[in-house]
Design brief:
By secondary structure, this protein is an alpha+beta fold. The chain has 2 helices and 16 strands. The protein has an 8-stranded antiparallel sheet with strand order 1-2-13-9-16-7-6-3, with helices on one face. It has a 4-stranded antiparallel sheet with strand order 8-14-11-12, with no helix packed on it. It is globular and about 40 Å long. It starts with a strand and ends in a 5-residue tail after the last strand.
Length: 196
């Protein structure tokens, strides 16, 4: 049963324990393990995926239609956010080893980014923690002075955009370096319109 641990109003940030069961977390890790490749970012100028030194991890983009658990999860995201499933990007599963991190970044795109042609901007981000990290790996919001430790089955939801539809400066966040063990997360980005 999900339990809200913290709520921060400025970007609608909510942090829960118990969003996913242990079995769901293990199933998502298993899916991710079979599809991992070096993580990329979307270049804001070209819209192309590119490997970048600010993001050190491996990622997987499983197809929702190939895994019933992904279909169930997508329906749960609709219930959690109230946003239609059509606005969801494919779920991304990420694996971090010791020393790997994602330095401070925005999930929302700049106003002229080519990526906006795929359903508008990323209005919401949901990060789901699939394991408890032995040391490190916290999610940091430097402008808010908040950081969250990975709790297996827990998650964070926050808005990337302000009321004007532009990237919100307080949505800047980072995945701090894993110091010991490994970190598995799943990230669901939700666009303003249907993702294409």
């Amino acid at each position: 049963m999900a339990r809200l641990l913290l709520q921060e109003q400025r970007i609608g940030l909510r942090y829960w324990a118990g969003l996913l069961s242990l079995e769901d977390c293990r199933a998502l890790v298993t899916i991710g393990e079979s599809l991992l490749r070096p993580a990329t970012v979307i270049d804001e100028q070209s819209g192309a995926e590119t490997v970048h030194p600010e993001r050190l991890s491996a990622m997987a983009w499983p197809k929702r239609e190939s895994h019933p658990i992904l279909q169930k999860l997508a329906q749960g995201v609709v219930q959690l956010t109230g946003v239609p499933m059509a606005c969801q990007e494919p779920l991304q599963i990420l694996h971090y080893r010791p020393g790997e991190e994602y330095r401070p970044h925005f999930d929302g795109f700049s106003a002229d980014a080519p990526a906006l042609s795929h359903g508008g901007n990323r209005q919401l981000t949901l990060i789901l923690y699939l394991n408890a990290v032995e040391a490190g790996g916290e999610t940091l919001f430097p402008e808010l002075g908040l950081h969250f430790s990975p709790i297996m089955g827990g998650g964070i939801l926050f808005r990337n955009l302000g009321e004007d539809g532009q990237r919100h400066p307080l949505s800047l966040h980072a995945g701090l370096p894993v110091q010991k063990g490994e970190k598995w997360i799943a990230t669901q980005w939700i666009r303003q319109g249907p993702y294409v």
